[in-house]
Amino acid sequence: MSNNIINSHIDSLIKAALDEDLDDVGDLTSQSLFQQDTLGKFKLISKSNGIISGIPVFKRVYDIIDKNSEINFFIKEGTVVKDSTLIAELKGNLLSLLKGERISLNFLQRLSGISTLTNKFVEKIAHTNTKILDTRKTTPGYRYLEKYAVKQGGGFNHRFGLYDMILIKENHITAAGGIVNAITYCLDWINKNEVDIKIEVEVQNCEQIKEIIHFPIHRIMLDNFSLLSIEEAVKLINTTCEVEVSGNITLDNVQKVAETGVDYISVGCLTHSSESLDISMLLYK
Question: What distances in angstroms separate CA 201 from CA 35, 70, 80, 135, 213, one per listed residue?
Fold first, then answer.
């Protein structure tokens, strides 16, 4: 996934956000205060430490509103900033700049917050070979952007949806009548349809690992395992396949989990609980 993330889907998100904010009426406050040809200048300033992510989306908001708006960024996408860092200057029609202020900031702050939190997890385990993964616990419609922000923070993307790999989870296992049945059915389906697709299996305990270790699966996910159970599972799997840990991962425990030797740690809070980075867009003369 490159920094060139603008596509028709992103445009539709931006247009929906603008419609939500403006309806068919527009910015009544600005329209009642200023003439249509009034010019303005703004500074975009970080108000906290973090990683800036979402510059292409920020710029695209103003491309859609008014292509004559001038935006000069002083930093690149993925830059680490400190409090009071000047990110960009904006010049142009004051009504246009104010019209896009909240929407452009919402995108930039949200994505920067995800990148910043992701990087905190990545830095905690930098001395290991373990990789931080995101999950599908994303804002509906915003998965592409939020997973992009994870990568900007140094994390890695798990599957984008239900379509790009087989991940057998607890409900699948229950519905199939057991973990062995579930894997067998999936392998049969793969063979029958002659498709090349990876299988990951979620397990609840080491006994389930013993049941499935002989199957040709790509990865085993340890769901809500204790630290001791993770260590036991890693020894049991013994590089037969990749090992992923999921469930109740925090900045306080991620280092110890990584040090068990697992390949991946998936962290849902990267996208569902990150705090938006504080960024201000202030008028100046």
Answer: 62, 50, 36, 15, 10
